Batch of 4 targets.
Target 1
Amino acid sequence: QVQLVESGGGLVQPGGSLRLSCAASGSTVSRSDMKWFRQGPGKEREFVAFITGVLGLTNYAESVKGRFTISRDNTKNTMYLQMNNLKPEDTAVYYCYAWAGGIGYWGKGTQVTVSS
């Protein structure tokens, strides 16, 4: 069983930065591939970024490349999303996702609002 808890969301002005965290519980999570997704108002949930479990290889959606950085600290069972140069269109609920033991797990999300 894996539990994921996101934190770090909030209100930020355009051009600002936030760092999201996803704290994970479960014995296998440090070896699990993990992702960030987001769902904006009136939109479908979309992929944001991906990081592999052991090597930490990463991949990003085109819309966030060069602005967002995904990382993880396996000693703390925590994944991060550093978001820089935020835009109003980044406004969304951000969710973390882990694939562990053949099962996908979701967190409950954290709200990010980019507005002046």
Note: The two ends are 40 Å apart (CA to CA).
Target 2
Amino acid sequence: QVQLVESGGGLVQPGGSLRLSCAASGFTFGSYAMSWYRQAPGKERELVAAISSFGINTNYADSVKGRFTISRDNAKNTVYLQMNSLKPTDTHVYYCNAQRTREIWGQGTQVTVSS
């Protein structure tokens, strides 16, 4: 079964940190570029960060540069998003995405930044 399962979301205070994980199964994880997207209610889904299949290349949305870090462990079929210095504007549902010849989405995990 092809799937991506996100975890690690939750409620955190401004300035805090969270680490999201996305576990992949059912496909050749190491052959896919991986990304994290986020979406707020009534808004379009936006790209947060992406990493190439071997983890050599990464790119980030301007709004998270210097605060978020994407990484992957191909031996564990897992991609991560380390989020530091969180702001209330980072409150979104965060989705994991795999892309090569097809696109695969996870179910999303809620991140809420609030005092």
Note: The mean pLDDT is 97.
Target 3
Amino acid sequence: VQLQESGPGLVKPSQTLSLTCTVSGGSITTNYYYWSWIRQPPGKGLEWIGDITYSGNIYYSPSLKSRTSISRDTSNNQFSLQLSSVTPEDTAVYSCTRRLGNAMDYWGKGTLVTVSS
């Protein structure tokens, strides 16, 4: 299984960050996998953003829920992240992962998104 993030590397403050994760080698609708977005700001730890499940259920981090939207395109085997009203504090390496239970077994390489004017 391979995951690849794509999207702009630079976003202006107050705008919306949009990323897509393209999955190959496995279907995002396969029982019972969760497909997750994770981020890591420079010099800080990993932060879970949210999941979309094999059945399309969506879960968000409470701290980001008001600004986050996760969706999927099953025909293209992709899932996406939108984070609105970004600030420089949203600057981070954003990664998509596959999760089964508590184990994230496959990760994308991650993409650095910088929020700056």
Note: The chain has a mean pLDDT of 97.
Target 4
Amino acid sequence: QVQLVESGGGLVQPGGSLRLSCTASGFTVSTYIMTWHRQTPGKEREWVASIYASSTATNYADSVKGRFTIFRDAGYNTVYLQMNSLNPEDTAVYYCNERSRGLWGQGTQVTVSS
């Protein structure tokens, strides 16, 4: 079964960090472009970061550049999003995506609040 499962969300104080995980089954994450997106109620889903197939090349939205890092671990077939210096504007449901299939995970909630 081809699927993505996100985890690692939660409640964190401003300035804190979280690491999100996206574990794939049915395909190998290192051979596809993998992306993270986020969505808040009433707004469109927003692209956050990408990691490119068979390379370590990455790209980030301006709003997270320098604070977030996308990377993958082939051994665990997982893509991660390391989020540092979080602020309340980062509060959202975060989704990972395999672009060629249009495959999405179920999302994981991140709440940044004191």
Note: The radius of gyration is 13 Å.
